[in-house]
Amino acid sequence: MHIERKLLLIGLILALLIVVAGCANTNEEEIPGANIAGIRASITKILISPLAFDGAIVAVEGLVRDVKKEKSDREKSVTTFKLYDLQGNFINVSTLSTIKILENDYLLVGGIYRREKNEIEAQEIEKIQIEDRKGN
């Protein structure tokens, strides 16, 4: 009976160590833009079928061009820019976000698409860092 208790105790300790070792994996990489809500679509796809996306919450990515900051009626600063894909197509974006947006930033933008302005009213913006991984 005494040996059975020792074996059970050793088994429980080993199980606990396996669980702790499995939880200790901190090498997972975060997926860029995973927290941004919306239908993932390319800019080209939205421009081909604007009626299908009108009023929908979308998430698109691309390069920033033509950044402008303007004061709106409510004294809030509105940032507008064009978001380009790799084919040269673009969607206008407007946001009240305070994130600093610069020319040539690569962004993931989530918001409501408005067909009449070819514009996304951005609620969420995330900068994507493009890294050189040759050293890995």
Radius of gyration: 24 Å
How much of the sequence lies in strands comes to 35-45%
Number of H- or I-type helical stretches:
3
Name the strands of the widest sheet in spatial order. 2-3-4-6-5
Shape summary: elongated
Low-confidence residue ranges: none
Structural class: alpha/beta
Explain the layout of strands and helices.
Layout: H1 2-23, E1 39-40, H2 43-48, H3 50-53, E2 57-71, E3 77-84, E4 90-95, E5 106-114, E6 119-127
Parallel strand pairs: 1-2, 4-6
Antiparallel strand pairs: 2-3, 2-5, 3-4, 5-6
Written overview of the protein:
The protein is built from three helices and six strands; from the N terminus they run H-E-H-H-E-E-E-E-E. With 136 residues, the protein is of the alpha/beta class. Strands 2-3-4-6-5 form a five-stranded mixed β-barrel. The longest helix is centred in the first third of the chain and has 22 residues. It is elongated and about 80 Å long. It starts with a helix and ends in a 9-residue tail after the last strand. 19% of the residues are buried.
